[in-house]
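Fold this: 33 kDa chaperonin
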Amino acid sequence: MNDYIVKAIALQDQVRAYAIRSTDTVSEAQRRHDTLPTSSVALGRSMTAGAILGAMMKGDEKLTIKIDGGGPIGTILVDANAKGEVRGYVSYPRTHFEVSESGKLDVKRAVGTNGTLSVSKDVGLSQPFVGQVAIETGEIGDDFTSYIMNSEQTPSSVGVGVLVNEDNTIRAAGGFIIQLLPGTSEETIRFIENRLLQIPSISTMVKEGLTPEKMLEEVLGAENVSVLETMPVQFQCQCSRDRIARAIISLGQQEIQDMIVEDGKAEAQCHFCNEYYLFTKADLEKLLEETK
């Protein structure tokens, strides 16, 4: 099964709903960054929510999420777009704590609660739209709920979950975002609130292999959900050797000449995907020629 997002409408068009299977996407991030379990869960939850927020956008629009709660994991950074492409990393991927008193990995301790969650949306204008909220729980899902409510003025519920195997690989990842549309009746609001109290945890649903469609049915009732479309999701980085080469060229002739004389090479590594790029002396000399 490949990762994908479901977009749906529910309860007589009063509710907009999204759900995602993100297991392969989070697995790729874990593999590339060699994250330990607590870091894997924090990054995976953030990428899962980010992918859904990206799916709410259109065309070439994209967004960047920055979570900095002051905890030992450092900053979590996620990029996502309207095409189902998402990438992310954490400052300290080897951060890990044993399970908390609740029996779950202590994500709150790793992320911290003394900082902010910000979302910068590039919709093709001269300046991006930026929304920011204080981190309340450090558990990621609740903090995204707070962000959507306070920055976008849309009552929402965000559920994200990641399960890690004993060998540190990702067993399952997924989540949902439920949003109330203007004019939602009090009866519908109470219905959803009661369902959210009764449903299995998102981690349980992910563990049991529920598809995104089935997750929404658990939350909203099978008879109430109408799927509008599905979209594939994947870990996708925008870095490339050509982009790095253009960046080197943009430094100018003198800077490139200094690289040739002093180091005889240039090296670059992408934070988002950990790809390593080496430009030899001969490579640099060719780039130098392109600047003339």
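The longest strand covers residues 170-180. The two ends are 51 Å apart (CA to CA).
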